[in-house]
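Reminder to self: tokens first, then the designed residues, so the page reads top to bottom the way the pipeline ran.
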């Protein structure tokens, strides 16, 4: 009895991908199924970066396929192709950028910037071309976190070249001023600065641009929602009740302006004593889970309160770069895959496929 494509598809459906939370056939990630006698070859094309996961995924799919009666040899290849996804209506795309992901928090002090830079670095390590824009005009922190002490160059006097560090591109107002210079600007000046940093930077073929937003729901966030093509947002919070209350406001803001919330990251979830190993929930417990269930938004991951995260980021080598094999770096990379997977399931942006139609009076 010869093998059929239906049998192989049935085997593939038996595996639910932990990041997509569905089978690869339903997620339209199966590029091709080829059957030659008892030999089966399956090509998988993920829509999110997951370089370190490719081997594990191939092995699990191969196991499922080999369990089908009549299969003698199974070959599974896994690749990634990242495409542009839909954004708010009426907002024009940014040259050189496929997807923009906003990282936000309702209040300060929850580790949003640290999370944003480690997320960007994790996406890069998983195989994507990534940039980060520091949108906190009043308190830019990405230059120090990335260990960059330079000013961007301008070949034409009008645009800026992004600075590169640890494999990612970056831009910040902090590159253009002295570190201790205060930005004593009113709202319109701040929003204009954000738009210029975003549109005047010559981003080089980015799969993802991470925007590290300032805390709150003010001018910067409103400008982002109305004029910047955002594919999705990530909310960073701690389990503390007050932080969760503010995070809810941030989540609601994105919902009102039609920006998809990809999920919640719970930072400072648990403290593990470096001396005795005692675990303690300093800021409370289960807050991220409750918020996830209440708003039907995924909890992307929970990060511990660990002194190394602070030390490494302050030193210009965030954890994902400083200790790539550490448990904390693995958590960041797992979160990065989940963020990419959630975005990959959204509607794609086909605007670049269609010609622009201009109506003129003759």
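Designed residues (362 positions):
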């Amino acid at each position: 009895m010869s093998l059929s494509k239906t049998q192989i598809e049935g085997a593939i459906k038996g595996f639910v991908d932990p990041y997509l939370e569905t089978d690869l056939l339903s997620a339209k990630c199966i590029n091709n199924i080829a059957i030659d006698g008892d030999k089966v070859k399956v090509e998988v094309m993920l829509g999110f970066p997951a370089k370190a996961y490719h081997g594990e995924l191939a092995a699990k799919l191969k196991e499922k396929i080999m369990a089908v009666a009549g299969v003698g040899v199974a070959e599974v290849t896994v690749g990634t192709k990242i495409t542009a996804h839909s954004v708010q209506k009426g907002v024009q795309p940014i040259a050189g950028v496929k997807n923009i992901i906003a990282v936000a928090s309702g209040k300060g002090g929850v580790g949003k910037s640290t999370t944003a830079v480690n997320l960007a670095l994790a996406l890069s390590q998983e195989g994507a071309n990534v940039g980060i824009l520091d949108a906190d005009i009043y308190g830019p922190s990405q230059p120090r976190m990335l260990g960059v002490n330079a000013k961007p160059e301008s070949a034409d006097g009008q645009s800026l070249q992004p600075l590169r560090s640890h494999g990612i591109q970056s831009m910040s107002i902090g590159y253009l001023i002295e570190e201790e210079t205060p930005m004593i600007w009113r709202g319109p000046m701040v929003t204009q600065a954000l738009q210029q940093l975003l549109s005047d930077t010559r981003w080089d073929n980015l799969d993802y641009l991470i925007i590290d937003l300032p805390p709150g729901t003010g001018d910067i966030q409103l400008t982002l929602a109305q004029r910047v093509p955002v594919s999705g947002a990530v909310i960073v919070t701690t389990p503390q009740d007050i932080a969760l209350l503010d995070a809810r406001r941030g989540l609601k803001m994105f919902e009102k302006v039609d920006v998809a919330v990809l999920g919640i990251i719970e930072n400072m979830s648990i403290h593990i004593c470096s001396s005795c190993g005692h675990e303690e929930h300093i800021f409370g417990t289960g807050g991220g889970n409750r918020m996830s269930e209440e708003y039907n938004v995924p909890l992307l991951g929970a990060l511990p309160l660990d002194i190394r995260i602070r030390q490494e980021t302050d030193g210009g080598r965030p954890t994902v770069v400083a200790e790539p094999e550490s448990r904390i770096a693995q958590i960041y990379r797992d979160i990065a895959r989940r963020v990419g997977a959630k975005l990959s399931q959204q509607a794609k942006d086909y605007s670049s496929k269609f010609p622009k139609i201009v109506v003129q009076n003759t």
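The radius of gyration is 22 Å.
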